[in-house]
Write a structure and sequence with these properties.
The protein is of the alpha+beta class and 175 residues long. The chain folds into two domains: 2-135, no CATH class; 138-175. It contains four helices and seven strands, in the order βαββββαββαα. The chain binds zinc ion (ZN) (2 copies).
Length: 175
């Protein structure tokens, strides 16, 4: 997943479009079951900057935070990023000073702009802390563990509704 910059620079002022599709199993240690990402980008370059605009669409395996079932989680986002072209290291600048200068910048050196790590970070950011298999997932019963999406159980009927009625009956009898 990389852009060959001399190809882009030839078309100074014009954007070139690229499409990538990759398997995610090698990007993330815990994605042994796989997943894919499709990336569409439009790239333009000047002598010192590379502008990348596009969007990604990823499908990853996730575990629903309510019912604990595996499901395919679709993630997508648009992004625009400017990568600064690193010039030859200036005499007098140390690796530390260079690192400090470029700490908050996306940089590229040489002829290739590798997008994998950048997109990997976007996918991580797009993941929800508590993913749901569907917006109205009913989850599992905390009483008996039944998956309430597939069947119902009688835990809460017994505990709450019926008990309240029984209590009232008992109160009546005690009078
Ligand atoms: Zn669920
Ligand atoms: Zn239950």
């Amino acid at each position: 997943m990389y852009i060959y910059l001399p190809e882009v620079k030839q078309k100074e002022g014009e954007a070139l479009d690229y499409l990538f599709e990759e398997n995610l199993s090698e990007w993330f240690d815990d994605f042994s079951e796989g997943g894919t990402v499709k990336l569409q980008v439009s790239v333009s370059a000047s002598a010192d900057k590379v502008l990348v605009k596009g969007n990604f669409n990823a499908v990853i395996k996730a575990v629903c935070s309510r019912c604990l079932e595996n499901f395919e989680h679709h993630l997508e986002a648009d992004f625009t990023e400017v990568f600064s072209v690193l010039k030859e290291v200036l005499s007098g600048s140390t690796p530390d000073s260079l690192a400090a200068e470029t700490a908050n910048m996306h940089t590229v050196a040489g002829d290739y702009l590798y997008l994998e790590e950048y997109i990997r970070q976007l996918i991580i950011l797009a993941q929800e802390h508590s993913p749901l298999c569907k917006a109205d997932c009913k989850g599992i019963c905390s009483g008996c563990g039944t998956d309430l999406n597939n069947s119902s159980c009688s835990c809460y009927m017994d505990d709450e509704v019926v008990d309240i009625r029984l209590l009232k009956l008992k109160e009546l009898k005690q009078r």
